[in-house]
Structures are given as C-alpha cells and as structure tokens.
Amino acid sequence: MNALPRAIDLGVIGCPVCGLVCRTLPGDAQLDGDGVDDDMACPRCHSYLRRRKTNSYARTWALLIAGFLLYIPANVLPIMRTASIGDIDDNTIISGVVELWVKGSPDLAVIVFTASILVPMLKFLALGTLLISSQRGSDWARPQRAKLYRLVEFIGYWSMLDVFVVALLTALVRFSVLSRVEPLPGVIFFGLTVVLTMLASISFDPRLIWDGRNTDD
Amino acid sequence: MTEDSHVEQDPPPRQELPRPVVERRRFRGSLIWLVPALAALVGLSLVIHNWLQAGPEITVSFQSAEGLDAGKTPVKYKNVVIGRVKKIHLSADRSHVLVGVALDKSAKGFATEGTRYWVVRPRIGLGGVSGIDTLFSGAFIGADVGESNQPEDEFTGLESPPSVNHGALGRSFVLHSSDLGSLDIGSPVYYRRIQVGRVASFALDKGGQGVSLQIFIDAPNDRFVTTSSRFWNASGVDLSLGANGLKLNTQSLAAVLAGGVAFQDPPGPHDSTAAPEDTSFKLFGDRETAMAPPDGEPHYIRMRFDQSVRGLAVDAPVEFLGINIGKVVSVRLDYDEKTQKFPVVVGAVVYPQRLGSAYEKLEALAKARGENPDLSRTMGGLIAQGLRAQARTGNLLTGQLYVALDFLPHAAKAAFDPDAKPLTIPTAPGSFDKLQEQLADIVDKLDKVPFDSIGKHLDETLAGVNATLKQVNGQTLPAVKDTLHGVQKTLGSANEALSGDSPLQRNLGATLEQVQRMARSLRVLTDYLGGHPEALLRGRRADPPPAAQTPPSQPKAGSKP
Predict the structure, then answer these.
(1) A residues 57-96 near B, CB within 8 Å?
(2) Helix or strand or coil: residue B22?
(3) CA B128 to CA B167: how far, in whole Å?
(4) Does the CA dihedral A148-A151-A156-A162 come out positive or negative?
(5) Distance of alpha carbon A23 from alpha carbon A17, whole angstroms
(6) Which domains does chain A have, with CATH numbers?
(7) Does B33 touch chain A (CB under 8 A)?
(8) Mind listing the pLDDT tens digit for each residue in A67-101?
(9) B206-B211-B212-B218 Cα dihedral, nearest 10 degrees
(10) What is residue B433's predicted lDDT score, i.e. its pLDDT?
C-alpha cells in the first residue's frame, strides 16, 4: 500500500509563522534532517522555512553525547557540601540518595533518585533509541515512539530538581558556623547535563520518526 | 483525519504557490560537534587534573581507628590539609588498624622515611589541653615530615602527638636517669622557673639499668644549656628543715603535679660554652645533688664491724669529718671461723672528689711521691694516724646509723693492706658502743669493790663503838651527874646572894644613896664656887634677899666671860 503523501512529497512547505504554503523545488533542499539546508525564507513574513529541523540528527546526537559526557563528572564529583558544627560532609548524588535512604527518608530518596538518576538515564536511552530508530527509518512502533518523545520533552524540566534543591539550600541554610550548605562543581555539571539533554530533545524533530515510513498504519 | 480532509479538498495547483526566498549558505559545516568536543575536553581535563593531583598512597597503622572516617578524615600538616583517609581496614592479624591515606600531589614529601603520623584527638592532661577543636570537627591525622628523601609508604602511627615538631628551632639533649619518676612526654623543662622546653621522648637503656630521656629546648633559650649545666627532676615538693628554718622548695604547681625537669649552671666558675646538640647529661634527683660539685670516680670501700649495725641501711651516708663523701651500698653478714663471730661487712661507695681541694692536694702529694693515684698508700698513712670507720647514730629517735670516717686519738693499731681491692678500712666501735663499753667498765670496777669485807669491818667497828658507849653510860655519866649537882648548888647560893631582900642588896642600896647625896652636895658646892670664887678665901656669905634683877643679871654676867 502506498504511503499517503507528505508535504515534501507534494513539493510544498508551510510557513510556521504565517501559515503560507510555498512551493519547493527538489533542488532547493534535501529531505532528511542530516543534509545541510539552504536557508529558505517565507516570501510573506520572511521567517525561516524548514522542511525538518535543521541538522536535527547531528545536533541531537552532539548534544546528547555532550550531555552524557558531562553526566559522568556530575555523578562522580560531589554536588553539595553540608557543614554543620565541625562536621563537613561532601555528597555526590548517589551518596546523597544513599544517605537519605539510610537516615530514614526512603520516600525522599526515591524522589531524588528518580529525578536525578533515573530520569536522565531514561532520557539518554529514549533519545538514543529515537535517534537510532529514526535514522534507520525503522517503522517499529512509531506512535509509541512519538509518545515517548513527548514524554521526554515533558519530563526534561523535572531533572533540574537536584539543581534547584542545591540552589535553594545554599540560599537558605546560611547559619555561618552552625550550619552551611555550599554548592560544589558537580552540580554545575549536572545542570549542564540537564540543559544539554533538554536542548537535544528540542533539536530532535519528531517528524523524522515518520519519515522512513512507507505505509500508513 | 486532517490529512484525509486535506487530501479531499482540492489543493491549489502547485504552480500557483509562491516560491520561498532561497539564500545560499556560504558555510556548510556544522559547529554543533564542538559541544560534545568541549564536554569531552572538560571531562578529560578533570581526569588529567585528578591524575595530576593524585599523590602517593600510604598506609599508616594505628592501634585503633577511633575517630577516623574513611573518605572524610583529613591529614593535616600545620593545619593544612595534605591528604585524606581513603580506607580503613584491619591488619591480617587483627592487632592493629591499617589506614590508607591518599596524599595530595604537593604532599609527596610526606611519603618519605621518618615522617610521623598521629591522630589528633582532644587531650586533657595535667600539662594542658590540646586538640579541643577536634571535639567538634572530629579527629584528624597530624603529620610531621622527616629529613630523609627515601620514599616510604608504610608508616606506624604514633599514639600520642610528638612533643617536638621537625624543624622546630632549638636543640635536643639526652638525659640519663635511674628511673622516669613522674616525667612523661611533654613534661616541661624549666630554666629559672620559665618553661623553655619539654621532654620529647624517653626510652629504657639497652641493658634496662636506666632511662634515657630526650628533651628539647626551644631556641633561643637553648643557649643556656652549657656543657656544665646540671639537670634535676623538678617534680614534687622539697621540704627541708635547716638551720634557717623550714624551707619549702617547689617549681610551678603544674610541675608539682605533672613533673618536670629543671636545669641551671652550677654556682662558681664553670665552663659556659653552649652544649652541642644531643649532649648527654645526668638527671639528678633534686636540685641539691645536682648543684653539688661533681663526684668524680666512685671508689668502693669495705668495712668490717664486729658489733651489731642495727639501723644501718643501704644508702646511709658515709661522712668524712662531717662531710658526706658517699653512701652505703651493701650490708652483709659474714662468719669468721677463727673467732666464731659474725662480723658485718659493709660496702660503701665514696667519691673522694667531694673532698674538694683536700683531695686535690692529697692527689698531688701522692703523685709527687710516685705512688699509685688511687690514694691507697695515702689512705694507709691516714689509717696509721687513727682514721677509723665508725657506725654512729645519726638520729636518736629512729636509731638510724651512718658511717663516719674520723681520726680517733687512741685508736688501736690496725692492719691495712693498701693493695687490697676493695680497700678495707679498719673500724672502731661507735661512740654509742663506746659509751656502753665504758659503762660496762664502770660496772666491772664496781664489781671488784670488796663489799663483803667492808661490811665485816664496819660491823666490828660498830661493836667497838657499842662497848665504848656502854662504858660511858656506866661510869662517866654518874660522875657527870654529881658534878652537875654541885654546879646547881653553887648557882642556888649565888641566886640567894643576889635576891632583893638579901643584906648585900640592902647595903648596896644605902651606899648608892649616900653616894648620890654626896654628888648633889658636891654640885651645890661647885655651883657656889662658880658664882663666888672668893668664898674659898672668905667663907660663905649670908644669902642675899631674893631680888628681882638678879636672875637676869646672872646670865649677863655668865655670858660675858
């Protein structure tokens, strides 16, 4: 069964701003996101016209890899220093979770674990899966993959939880000698990881999921 | 759905749609790969930094890991963190704790031979309080680097902080003592009651006969330690009763409680060059003995006492003419087969140098005469002059004895062998013994008095006296009685003659009356003759009639001549 035509197949492109539909020629640009597009502009409102997000695969891959690289120091380096009278405690994400669990707040531990470890890891996995499957033009579980992408975009913000916790504690717990919370380099890496994965998920074009499609389901 | 409806509507022909404005791009490369490259660079730089920062890993063994926390406890030198405890585990034989420490790269010099590690914990002692800050911050491991450059990664941790840090300015010295007393590591060292150093370490001598203490004197006060300095144990209270009254001598209260060492130069001329590092000194028990002139070489002498030496104990003083020159070191009982007696052999150590210039003179004389320098010949001469050892009572209350070497004027000749080792000094009974002897002598003499015959003679004499008295009673006394009778009679008649109504008495009265009358008429005559001297020639005139003027004229006439 033949696939239903896409805008590309019809040689048209819609302006995302003013909605004007333009005619494109096959030589204007290539189809997939990996090729380097010439810049096309809407003749009416002069906003950029894109068939797909520019260079989507490369950008997503690059940002994802950068995020993953920074995720390593984010976990290895301590993110927060808690100094109470005389006792200085440096915590990495994992040790913080373990400490919370051991000291009798398993609920908090689960929340922190989910937000700081599980979600980033799942994001890496999900985006990687989406990228690989899309690049291969696989037609496996497309609607589910589209849903997965929306989920990834949605939960992306929540990964900042740890960074917020550290920022909040640093601002609030300032009793000089008695008790003090200081951010440590790890939290910067963690924040960068979260930002990069969010950028990666933004630069991924979900239309690529459907691009390899040959049949309508 | 939308797609379907889209399809259903008639789209405008493709040719009617406007064409987008196309701008050809000059740069066709993608800069996005710079982001992961940068991330990789950052990660790599972290790894490299970490790798560069990683210093040597060392293992320190401690008795206990009390207060230590893997991953947290820092290692500090001068309160600068130079490393951190990485892991703590027991040794294979479970006798101690092995603490793995990751030192910083900059602290490479601490992984060398001679570096000392110890756990700083709060310590409260008599000498002071230390490590109070660790009450809150938790214990940390202190480090003190040595001099060696030899790398080393196995260390034995000290159980207490070293009292002297490496590189501290000052000098250390060695003190030898018979026992440690109340001293401890960190005990203060005083110079004129100012603390100038402390005891760094102590150890038993190899043979176990004494204790060697290492002390450290801080600069600049270390220059006060001279080659002739005397060290003494300043702990405790020195209470002495002297001719000047009761005297209490102590260092600071801390020294009294916790012990301490004091030093000072001896009085009088002495060598005052600063002592070099690690000079050995003797640690005296108290200031007095420390300040005494040096004893020089000890000489062992032996004395045999034939009488009991009850009260003579080891360490009792040996005095020569009242000067303490040594002490008793042994008191043993011997048996003499010939006399079947139990003499007491007393061994003593004497320091002839305590005699001062006397000893020097004697020594010079002995040398001049070419005798052996240990003065045994000179000793022989002195003994010939009556030098004897006596066990004398030093304290009448406790009966403590001391050995006195004195010249006895009437000492019996004694044999002396100058070549014997040790020298045996002849003895004489002590003064108390002598007193006893003399008393015994007196008793002996009293014994010899012939009280029996004296009594007999006395009895005979008394019998003679008795007979004499009887004779007196029988013959002499009656005669005396007769005589007395005669005397009484004589006295009676004399009495009668003198009584008031006796004729003698009466005659005497009349006679005296007549004499009185005669005297009166004689006066009248002389009066008259005085007024009328012519009456001697002319006789008495008739008395003139009494006139009023005569009486006053009489005194006139009388006063005129």
Answers:
(1) 58-59, 62-63, 65-67, 69-70, 72-73, 77, 85-89
(2) strand
(3) 23
(4) negative
(5) 16
(6) 1-51 (no CATH), 56-210 (1.20.140)
(7) yes
(8) 898 888 888 888 888 887 767 778 888 888 898 89
(9) 160
(10) 67
